[in-house]
Design a protein that fits this description.
The complex is a heterotrimer of chains A (257), B (280) and C (307). With 257 residues, chain A is an alpha/beta fold. Chain A is 35% helix and 25% strand. Chain A is built from 10 helices and 10 strands. In chain A, strand 1 and strand 2 form a beta hairpin. The longest helix of chain B has 18 residues. In chain B, helix 4 packs across helix 5, helix 4 packs parallel to helix 7 and helix 7 packs parallel to helix 8. In chain B, helix 8 links the parallel strand 8 and strand 9. Chain B is built from 10 helices and 11 strands. Helices cover 73% and strands 0% of the residues of chain C. In chain C, helix 3 crosses helix 12. The chains are: A alpha/beta (257), B alpha/beta (280), C mainly alpha (307).
Chain lengths: 257, 280, 307
């Protein structure tokens, strides 16, 4: 079975910094892949390279069997969409929700914008009363739902999720994660989820890669993670840190370089 | 108020007058604080940060505070003059905030800021102040205190910036430290390392710690007692060790809706909010 | 029994303050209404607005308001002091100063409006393009802007008018040529702040073109700062026009432009002070009005605030 996303030997640079080192990732259709790491690990950079926001990269990126070059085009945008971390920053403060959702429909000439907007809002659990509001009139969780609706309105096959719930309250996070799970099942989507939270990724993803300083240091399935079967010392440290405050654990931490 | 109690708060209420009408941020919060670690946990809008700020008299101008009691030793915090507040803040009650990017002055070196914090409350010459500042930087486990002393806040990492913040706030030797989401902006391993430093310092100095956070899991593993707040009320007060026996449905809901690393991909139980919780 | 007029007012207010607008138009009106309410809280800003509105009304109703023909000379009535027949007296050709003042408002408003319509869009376009594309486009456009900024406004306006010839149209052009650079600077600064935002990246990832991003996404974020700056600048524009008029390079006699009126009354300043002072006061009041209006708008239009 050919993978939906196949990344081989991906390397990327920001000026002189080698930020991604030999990244290999393979994700099947309808799969869910998690990238975990701390800040500076390069996990978000992987997503941004896929979306074409990084200029200086080398390697092979195959999405739906098509190789990606430096530029992205409209067919790509109908294939893969992104949900950003900050619900307060990813919606234009001066546009109504209606405008935010209608714009992509018009650009890609999909037609029927009215019906599509209503359907998109329904898919993410928002009713019509939200349609003509401005983002500042919505809560964080509601904004994130709109961001998901915006991503889905182009009917993509792939969703790139960049810490989609990190800025949300825990109870709202649960709702949004459930929504994402439901959508993946109903629409057959493929996910790449980036997070610093091991528990979130373990819950949402089938396969997980742990990154440190631009490199993938370990791969595991959700099941292996659940059993704590990690071999790399850095991933073990990350795993233990997820367990809460434990002095013995903390004293054993090593600052990785 | 027993001799062990440093701070006693009864029926604290804070209301903000905004253009959209009054906002009741805190409604009838009561607690006593001894030489212990008290965690205050809640989601956004719960009033936890406002409670912390009220203890230091840092409520915004459009906020009205009422309380039956707000006693710190022999001081009534409800009507302190500006001058008296300056003697309390930093010297006796101190606060560290979430993001050192915003809470450290970007145009002063770290050394200058710590010295300023120290000389505000202690009359010493510049050399003595510098020595104490370097000592404090070493106490927060900074390996090269001289270098950090001369650096600017943007030149150090987030974790180090937060440790600098702790050094600055603890150098005047306060009795109570209020930490408002002190580790939320940090990576997980750095979070725990910073908390370990707090752990040691609070224990050594016999201080009281108020740890405000949205992370119930983290707070319960670090503190002695936990107050759970919802929409301005305290809905539960519980010993950290007994958290799994929490009685209030909101606390239970918060604990249950966290994703666990058990390989289970089923939907997470979602918190259904009851209107009655906001009335307590 | 409900009288229709009493149910209409609450209906409109409800429509404006509705939590769930039914259309983009309703949402925009609602937002404008909230902005208006905030504006009205500022007393000084309301004073500024009243002055500007008064200027507009005087301009429109000049023929009805002016008691005399502003151009009608009456040499037997030269330099009369203010009286019941001539509220502000007469000038050196016997023309009623009040009437000239009223008609002069038209010139003031026209100059300001024409300059704004020309300079603001140019500044906005140059600034957003420079900020958005960066690189050599930014460098080139900003160096051109710098060249214009290097000259003091009045001197540059003088130079242009001298080259183009005196007259009110050339005065407008000259003022516009000196007015656009600060707008370009402001637009560029806002663009640079905004272009790295997530919502711009999100729009790019949805396939919005560069032009679409500049016009639909970045420009709305620049408009607030620009409006404030333009309103504050209007006072300056009036003064420059008055200065040009004073020097005889703007409006030509017998046009009752306020600056020219101040200039003409120079010779009689000590004894018949009203000939220069009254139009001078008018310039002052209108400039103040625009200033206060601009300040009030700044408080309301802060793009960083959510509401």
């Amino acid at each position: 079975m050919t993978a939906m996303i196949e990344i081989t030997k991906l390397n990327a640079w920001f000026d002189d910094n080698h930020v991604l080192k030999d990244i290999d990732i393979s994700i099947p259709a309808n799969g869910s892949f998690g990238l975990v790491g701390e800040s500076g690990s390069g996990k978000s950079t992987v997503l941004r390279t896929i979306t074409g926001l990084v200029d200086d990269w080398e390697g092979n990126i195959l999405v739906n069997n098509k190789e990606l070059t430096k530029k992205r085009d409209k067919t790509f945008y109908r294939l893969a969409q992104m949900v950003f971390q900050d619900p307060f920053g990813s919606l234009h403060p001066r546009h109504t929700i209606d405008r935010i959702l209608t714009e992509p429909v018009n650009i890609h000439k999909l037609g029927n914008s009215d019906a599509r907007v209503v359907e998109a809002l329904k898919q993410v659990g928002l009713d019509n009363s939200f349609r003509f509001r401005y983002p500042h009139q919505l809560s964080g969780g509601q904004r994130q739902r709109v961001a998901i609706a915006r991503a889905l309105i182009l009917e993509p096959k792939i969703l790139l999720l960049d810490e989609p719930t990190s800025a949300l309250d825990v109870s709202i996070q649960a709702e949004v994660l459930n929504l994402l799970t439901r959508l993946r099942n109903d629409l057959g989507l493929t996910y790449i989820m980036v997070s610093h939270d091991l528990a979130v990724v373990a819950h949402m993803c089938d396969d997980i890669a742990i990154m440190n300083h631009g490199r993938i240091v370990e791969r595991a399935t959700a099941g292996q993670l659940a059993d704590g079967k990690l071999e790399n010392p850095y991933s073990q440290q990350l795993f233990k840190a997820a367990g809460g405050y434990d002095r013995a654990v903390i004293d054993s931490f090593v600052d990785w370089d | 108020m027993s001799s062990d109690t440093l701070l006693s708060v009864k029926n604290l209420a804070i209301t903000f007058s905004t253009s959209k009408g009054p906002v009741h941020a805190v409604r009838g919060v009561s607690f006593d604080l001894g030489r212990e670690r008290l965690g205050i946990v809640g989601e956004s809008g719960s009033g936890k940060s406002q409670t912390g700020r009220a203890i230091l008299g840092l409520t915004a101008a459009n906020g009205k505070i009422t309380a039956d009691q707000m006693q710190f030793h022999d001081l009534d915090l409800r009507n302190l003059s500006k001058r008296d507040w300056r003697k309390v803040r930093g010297a006796r009650i101190s606060m560290i905030m979430q993001d050192p990017k915003y809470s450290l002055n970007p145009v002063m070196t770290i050394g200058d800021q710590i010295i300023e914090a120290y000389r505000e409350h202690h009359k010493v010459n510049a050399q003595e102040a510098k020595r104490r500042a370097l000592d404090m930087l070493a106490a927060v486990k900074i390996r090269d205190p001289e270098r950090v002393f001369k650096s600017y806040p943007h030149e150090v990492s987030g974790g180090m910036g937060q440790r600098v913040m702790i050094a600055m706030m603890l150098i005047p030797d306060p009795e109570i430290l209020i930490a408002d989401e002190p580790t939320s902006a940090l990576d997980v391993t750095v979070q725990l390392q910073v908390m370990a430093i707090l752990d040691d310092l609070v224990r050594e100095r016999g201080m009281a710690l108020v740890f405000i956070s949205h992370d119930l899991h983290l707070v319960s593993s670090f503190c002695d007692r936990v107050l759970v707040m919802y929409q301005g009320h305290v809905v539960e007060e519980i010993r950290a060790s007994e958290l799994d026996q929490a009685k209030h449905p909101y606390t239970q809901g918060l604990l249950n809706c966290l994703p666990k690393m058990d390989g289970n991909h089923a939907e997470l139980p979602v918190l259904t909010r009851e209107a009655s919780w906001a009335e307590a | 029994m409900n009288i229709s007029s009493t149910t209409e007012k609450p209906g409109l207010k409800q429509w404006l303050t509705s939590d769930t607008p039914q259309s983009r138009w309703q949402a925009k009106c609602g937002r404008a209404w909230l902005g208006w309410l905030k504006f009205t809280e500022n007393r000084l800003a309301m004073i500024g607005l009243s002055i500007v509105l008064a200027l507009i009304l005087v301009t429109i109703f000049a023929p009805l308001l002016a008691p005399y023909d502003p151009l009608a000379a009456d040499l037997t009535n030269r330099i009369q002091s203010p009286s019941a027949e001539h509220w502000f007296g007469t000038d050196q050709l016997g023309r009623d100063i009040l009437s000239r003042l009223i008609y002069g408002a038209q010139y003031t408003l026209m100059i300001v409006a024409l300059v704004v319509i020309t300079a603001a869009p140019v500044g906005l376009l140059v600034g957003t393009a420079a900020g958005f594309f960066g690189g050599w486009i930014d460098a080139t456009l900003m160096r051109i802007t710098d060249i214009f900024l290097a000259f003091p406004k009045l001197i540059l306006a003088l130079a242009f008018v001298s080259a183009l010839g005196p007259g009110i149209e050339n005065a407008v052009l000259a003022i516009a040529l000196t007015a656009w650079p600060p707008y370009a600077r402001i637009a560029r600064a806002e663009t640079i702040t905004v272009r790295k935002s997530d919502y711009i990246e999100a729009a790019r990832l949805q396939g919005v073109s560069n032009m679409g991003l500049i016009l639909g996404h970045i420009t709305p974020m620049c408009i607030s700062s620009l409006v404030v700056r333009v309103t504050l600048d209007m006072a300056g524009m009036i003064l420059i026009a008055a200065g040009l008029g004073f020097l005889g390079l703007g409006a030509q006699p017998p046009m009752p432009e306020w600056g020219a009126m101040v200039s003409e009354g120079r010779q009689f300043l000590l004894e018949q002070w009203w000939v220069s002072t009254v139009p001078g006061l008018a310039i002052f009041i209108v400039s103040l009005g625009f200033n206060l209006l601009g300040d009030g708008l700044r408080d309301v239009l802060d793009p960083r605030g959510g509401d």
